[in-house]
Queue: 4 jobs
Job 1
Amino acid sequence: MKAVVQRVTRASSNPGGAIGPGLCILLGVAEGDDEATAVRLAEKIAKLRIFENDEGKFDRSLLDTAGEALVVSQFTLIADTAKGNRPSFSGAARPAQAIPVYERFADTLRGLGIHVETGVFGARMAVELVNDGPVTIALE
């Protein structure tokens, strides 16, 4: 499982939802990922200290700031580009496996008290965001 986390002042997905200040999370589910992996990564992201304190240091998390989260499925994060010029997505989980893992990730954030909006799994989406900082972190 891979996630690209961007600190945002706002973000939206069409189709899907919209958020104010918080995190836009692009989430790729790989073959073999399970719900336990989703829980672990969601908890890590919720506690990731990438928001500034009063001194300007990264010392606050999404939980500390009462920020929101936009979670967007993105199988292209699982791309293998080792051979040739065309990425291979064979390592990405198929929808039957990926959807429950994706949903568990979002539900875990909700269970922590975070307001979560999502994109539409498998849809072609237009994602708009205003990256705050900019701050972008990739996690596995």
Note: The longest strand covers residues 126-139.
Job 2
Amino acid sequence: MATVQKLARMTNGVNVDDLMTTIDSIKATPAIAKFKFRVHNQWARGSQNSSTVGTFYGAGQELSRPRPFVLEADEPAILLGTDAAANPVEHLLHALAACLTTSMVYHAAARDIHIEEVESSLEGDIDLHGFLELNRNVRKGYQGIRVNFKIKANVPDEQLQAIVDLGSGHSPVFDSLSNGVPISVRVERL
């Protein structure tokens, strides 16, 4: 007797059946929702450094990727770098864009909202007076970030903002940036 194989329900490139299974698993065993992500950074010279992303903790276990990812960082020449890679604050904008997009797409898929295309552009303002300690009243980080989405979806125009709100309403990076997060820094000798 032939077995009938059930096709996965895919929306926006997301396996919605697996997404619902994950949600049900977390409801049944809340402890598996705890994750710890890690990077290991190594300075090369000047403004060049790289972070390696490999292992992480999730679903109650240590996990590793088939191959580690390397994220390079540098500064543009005008900021005394060699412009060999995006700078750290550009990486932050990338992290925000990627997390907003992923959160939006996943939550739209869970609601059976089909998205055909998503583009975003981000722009942030930094005043070097803060970084260089030339004015203690000027913040060292971004003073503001603007995100603009372009979305192609078969929904009325008035629902486009609701789709974007799925991203900002669920994005861990958006939450970390807009609400702050405690950071502890310690040192030890190499």
Note: The beta strands are 10-11, 14-15, 36-37, 40-45, 48-58, 61-73, 115-125, 144-153.
Job 3
Amino acid sequence: MGIAEQSATSAAAGLAREGKLPVLGTYATFAAARNLDQIRTSVCYGNFNVLIAGAHGGVSVGADGATHQALEDLFAMQGLPNMSVVVPCDVVETRKATQYLLLQHKGPKYIRFAREATPVVTDEKTPFVFGRANVIRLRREGASFSGAFETMLASLCEDENEDLSIIACGPMVPEAMRAAYILKKEFDYETRVVNVHTLKPIDAVAIVRAARETGVVVTAEEHQIGALAWRVSGILTESPQVYGVPVITGAIGVKDRFGDSGAPWELIKEFEVSAEHIAQKAVDLMAIKKRAPLKQEERGSLVGER
């Protein structure tokens, strides 16, 4: 319906009321903000079965710049009653999530994905269960980056006494995996990467386990800090299983600013959401965990050298 997102959203609600399966797709900044009133009142209030596809999420959009880079959409979508929110990590997971949301899940639902090509780190055998996180662990070095990791449902994994956890969603999952490689290669730290592709309903059990079993949690999101970080912090604050357990947390994400134009690889460094920034945050938190001051030559080295 062109640049008439409010009308398109209302039409989608009407189609859903008549039993159709409407998909509303456009840039995430227009699919979740310009029409927020219509999503809230026409779609969510009636609990209608509408799939909203938010494209061009995050800073990796590139040259389109600040007006088209959705960095606040997850705040709005998670805050709406009845709304489910999924942020898949690559094209394969996006396909699985779309098939599930459209054909099996009933109710308002929002799926967010990037514009630019992003690393493919899953395959058809990788588990995808709505509302259930995956745990990703570095296992070996080899010719294939994704082949160096093992992925399983968080509910099926055993504690391997990792040093820290990185909880990520969307394109930050490949960056978290790369950070895990850096941390192992350069600091001999074992990392548990938790892919929370479903932000609402979120897998609180996997998050609590990661915090309890590693003691250090870094969140990574290609969004204003908070859509993921605040959800994780809230879960840990309210969980009796974490009471009395020392847990150190840190957040990687956009720091209360608008986007910018540039190549995607330039922007993830400009906005400090690259694997190197994730790894540096982890190193800083590990120094606190060990109650040992970080050596001056170590601080900032990861980001500065890349």
Note: The mean pLDDT is 93.
Job 4
Amino acid sequence: MNNPPSTPPVRNFIPAAVILALIGWGGLYALMNFTYPTVGPRWLFFFLGVLAISGTALPLVAFLNNRFPSTPPVSPSVIVREAIWFGIYFPTIAWLQLGRVLTPALVLLLAAGFVAIEILLRMRERSQWTP
């Protein structure tokens, strides 16, 4: 008898989450303490911010997808993609704050845009699913 597909467990994502978080947060620590805020380190800040937030969000996203399953069940690539959305969101907010253009409305609109993109991607995946 075939077992129905299910969402992968959180423990499958722990090694990747630890590696991403260590590289990201460790790199941010070193960047903040040992460099000057010139152009190169500024872009490195955004890159390391994506790694740090993605690694931190990965177990949380995996847990939420396990806690609230969907049909069809999510694949590991969907969980990683959702964690990367978090990783992109927060450095984008930091970048907008550097230019002094960040407003509460922009924070909400940006979050709503990312959520809308993810919903549309999930709807597309659901429409192509065959049991």
Note: The CA atoms of residues 72 and 130 lie 9 Å apart.
